[in-house]
Amino acid sequence: MAKIATLITDLFEDSEYTEPAKAFKEAGHEVVAIEKETGKTVKGKQGNAKVTTDHGIDDVKPEEFDALFIPGGFSPDQLRADERFVQFTKAFMDDKKPVFAICHGPQLLISAKALEGRDATGYQSIKIDMENAGVKYADKEVVVCQNQLVTSRSPEDIPAFTRESLKLLKG
Amino acid sequence: MAKIATLITDLFEDSEYTEPAKAFKEAGHEVVAIEKETGKTVKGKQGNAKVTTDHGIDDVKPEEFDALFIPGGFSPDQLRADERFVQFTKAFMDDKKPVFAICHGPQLLISAKALEGRDATGYQSIKIDMENAGVKYADKEVVVCQNQLVTSRSPEDIPAFTRESLKLLKG
């Protein structure tokens, strides 16, 4: 089964972490929460979810993981201010491993300069940033690009996002 | 004295509103807080500041104001998801009125497609979004472009940001 690196910090969009993570685990995959520090409890912006991180970013390498998961909210904006998370993200895109990004998750992909020419979607506020980064943006619940990159817009899209992400983990 | 429209909602960066607003008022200017709704109390992300909005966006027109102020934090990202705030912002840029944007404030200017070829700065996480939008980005405490647009990077830059903004209001 797959070992999924999850980049997450405070003010993540609660359900965009909890629901896909639950589905991934139920399918037998391992979800590993990575932040700046190991063992830190980060909180969702709705106040519903807390996640205790499994690893600090300096303790992990991209090659230890099979896939990358980036929940949205205001977590990706904070993580992309730290070049370590940008380079970690870039490695999954360079290696063509499955990458699942929802809502503001694509902000990390923009900073990794990994979206030029890709089909993708994301939260409406970052649509223009994605387009300026070279994305062919589609206003759809889920976009799967080159059997590798799964993106969705918002919490309403979680079922489609989770379904397509699980397909790539099986494939 | 100038009447300054201020676009603000929850999770603004506390000091990026409170300190410039205090300086603007002390210099005799009027600071008018505008959100989706009139009379709503919005809270800063540090938990230190609260602002009760003076007007809902539907109750004001850009031509009623002399200048625009956009504090940072996660406020601008939420406001730019609403086209009314984007068009309001665009009007000040089109009319070449003074615009003061700090930290994530330039996100609204990106959505207004008002930054092509401009000299500006902003929070490090949005540097790539600003560059992709055509900005000549400078890593400086304050950038003044064409005697109209004042931008800064973060709370540390507030003194320079406020100083240059006040100069334009006098000019």
Question: What are the main properties of this structure?
Answer:
171 residues, alpha/beta, homodimer
Summary, kept brief:
The structure is a homodimer of 171-residue chains. The first copy, chain A, is of the alpha/beta class and 171 residues long. Chain A contains six helices and eleven strands.
Write structural notes for this entry:
The structure is a homodimer of 171-residue chains. In chain A, helix 1 packs parallel to helix 6 (158-170). In chain A, the strands form 3 sheets. A 7-stranded mixed sheet of chain A has the order 5-2-1-6-7-11-10, with helices on both faces. In chain A, helix 1 (14-26) links the parallel strand 1 (3-7) and strand 2 (30-35). Chain A has helices spanning 14-26, 75-79, 83-94, 106-111, 127-132, 158-170, and strands at 3-7, 30-35, 41-43, 50-52, 55-56, 67-70, 99-102, 119-120, 136-137, 143-145, 149-152. Helices cover 32% and strands 22% of the residues of chain A. Chain A is built from 6 helices and 11 strands. Chain A is α/β, with parallel strands linked by helices. At the A-B interface, helix 4 and helix 5 of A face helix 4 and helix 5 of B.
